[in-house]
């Protein structure tokens, strides 16, 4: 058969590559069909009696596909060690096709099909590497029973085809990897969905509350969930802002896409921009690889930005662009990227005051507060305490290796007598501590560490009298922290320390004390 001209080769090869690419749907069946189609098409250029694609795995070449009159089941199960065939190794290393005959094995490594196939003495064979970039899939071997060598022109064209086929194989492998990643992601989302059904279905924060303000909050949250509007959650620390954000996400059309929670106060200031918007490789010292960032991770879903008031001003401007234009620019990137992300922000500080003090951008504040929701502190919805405790105990039970947990009447009465500066988070911590200490599934007052707790006075902190002036959230926070510090004798760390009572990491508490100008009482640790 006369070799095809280069023009014919390029035209036919381009058409065949398009056909092969359409098979790359990320399955093993598609990969096997791709290899067989490749061998069949190569036979039009370089006739063979047996053609085999070998896949390289851990130094061993394993037959993956075979074609031709001499193709047999034993051929498809054939394996050879690469170290035993220096000629094939050389073809891979040089990325060049090699032609061999029985009289022309320069390395004396024999025939790869010895013991499997009886080829006549002097038959011709060709080895074509399947390599693209640094990705080595393996080799193709073509054998003829005739004692006629493949012409150099055919060998060169087969080498080009091998590169095209290797590229197609690389695409299929990437499709397989993406399919596995998508499956894992879908499994994680399904698991999260089941968890969310427990949390929101049982109404850990909203629910069938007896408090009219909480019922209105639930109605407003459900109302805005059906839109793509930005939501600003305002409330004291520990009131369950992340739970409300999850509730909004779960009730939205984005519920099958990611929900990504981010605590802005917990991210290091130096890497905050990179964490949110991503970076390119080499954008800064230590950027050894590109990173997509949290906005791209939440693409199509919801990004929950807790402690939004802690963002530096330079990052605030980039966040404003992302909200207004739906575009982000990774650190070190020359071009902006489109993203489709719904932002739910949360804060416990007075953002209006922060704007007046030029610590927060006014335009960003108005962009975030399209639909503000103010959460109700626990001390103002104590009628919901029994239901909240049941939900929290149901969540706690697996963590403390109990099938179920319940509260005694005396324990519930003791809990009703607290002010809850740490709100639901403080209640959750108390219940978990009690569950650990309890000797049975029933948690008693003494297990909560409230055996000597006296009921608070109606006019005490957290229950302002008619004569008490209304104060800002920041001032209210400052007073709560000072009160807890006095109650713990200034101790921040450890069991019973102010950080544990408030449900905050000690470093976060110290940061807020510094920002609010709070001095720790003497004698604390």
From TrEMBL:
InterPro entries: AAA+_ATPase, AAA_lid_NorR, GAF, GAF-like_dom_sf, Homeodomain-like_sf, P-loop_NTPase, Sigma_54_int, Sigma_54_int_dom_ATP-bd_1
The UniProt record lists the keyword Manganese: no
CDD domains recorded: AAA
Domain Sigma-54 factor interaction span(s) in chain numbering: 207-436
Organism: Chondromyces crocatus
SUPFAM superfamilies, sorted: GAF domain-like, Homeodomain-like, P-loop containing nucleoside triphosphate hydrolases
SMART domains: AAA, GAF
Entry keyword set: Activator, ATP-binding, DNA-binding, Nucleotide-binding, Transcription, Transcription regulation
Any one Gene Ontology BP term: regulation of DNA-templated transcription
Protein name: ATPase AAA
Annotated GO MF terms: ATP binding; DNA binding
């Amino acid at each position: 058969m006369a070799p095809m001209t280069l023009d014919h080769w390029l035209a036919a090869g381009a058409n065949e590559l398009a056909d092969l690419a359409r098979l790359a749907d990320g399955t093993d069946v598609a990969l096997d069909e791709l290899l067989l189609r490749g061998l069949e098409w190569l036979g039009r250029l370089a006739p063979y009696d047996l053609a085999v694609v070998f896949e390289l795995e851990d130094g061993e070449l394993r037959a993956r596909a075979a074609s031709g009159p001499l193709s047999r089941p034993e051929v498809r199960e054939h394996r050879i060690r690469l170290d035993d065939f220096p000629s094939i190794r050389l073809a891979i290393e040089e990325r060049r096709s090699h032609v061999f005959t029985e009289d022309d094995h320069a390395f004396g490594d024999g025939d790869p099909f010895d013991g499997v196939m009886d080829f006549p003495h002097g038959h011709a064979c060709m080895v074509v590497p399947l390599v693209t970039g640094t990705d080595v899939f393996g080799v193709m071997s073509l054998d003829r029973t005739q004692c006629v060598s493949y012409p150099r022109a055919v060998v060169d064209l087969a080498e080009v085809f091998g590169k095209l086929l290797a590229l197609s194989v690389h695409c299929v492998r990437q499709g397989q990897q993406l399919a596995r990643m998508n499956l894992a992601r879908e499994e994680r989302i399904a698991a999260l969905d089941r968890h969310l059904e427990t949390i929101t279905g049982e109404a850990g924060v909203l629910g069938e509350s007896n408090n009219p303000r909480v019922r209105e909050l639930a109605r407003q949250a459900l109302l805005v969930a059906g839109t793509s509007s930005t939501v600003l959650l305002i409330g004291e620390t520990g009131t369950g802002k992340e739970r409300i954000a999850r509730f909004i996400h779960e009730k939205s059309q984005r519920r099958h896409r990611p929900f990504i929670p981010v605590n802005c106060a917990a991210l290091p200031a130096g890497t905050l921009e990179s964490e949110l918007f991503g970076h390119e490789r080499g954008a800064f010292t230590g950027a050894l690889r590109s990173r997509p960032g949290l906005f791209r991770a939440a693409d199509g879903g919801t990004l929950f930005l807790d402690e939004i008031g802690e963002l530096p001003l330079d990052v605030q401007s980039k966040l404003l662009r992302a909200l207004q234009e739906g575009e982000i620019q990774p650190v070190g990137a020359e071009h902006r990227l489109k993203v489709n992300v719904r932002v739910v922000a949360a804060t416990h500080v007075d953002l209006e005051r922060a704007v007046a003090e030029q610590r927060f951008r006014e335009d960003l504040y108005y962009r975030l507060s399209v639909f503000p929701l103010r959460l109700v502190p626990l001390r103002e919805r104590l009628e919901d305490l029994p239901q909240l405790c049941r939900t929290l105990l149901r969540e706690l039970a697996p963590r403390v290796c109990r099938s179920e947990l319940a509260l005694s009447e005396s324990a519930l009465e003791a809990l009703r007598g607290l002010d809850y500066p740490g709100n639901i988070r403080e209640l959750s911590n108390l219940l978990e501590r009690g569950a650990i200490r309890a000797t049975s599934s029933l948690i008693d007052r003494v297990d909560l560490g409230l055996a000597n707790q006296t009921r608070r006075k109606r006019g005490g902190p957290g229950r302002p009298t008619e004569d008490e002036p209304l104060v800002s959230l920041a001032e209210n926070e400052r007073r709560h922290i000072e009160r807890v510090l006095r109650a713990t004798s200034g101790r921040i760390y450890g069991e019973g320390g102010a950080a544990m009572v408030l449900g905050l990491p000690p470093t976060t508490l110290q940061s807020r004390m510094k920002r609010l100008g709070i001095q720790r009482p003497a004698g604390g640790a």
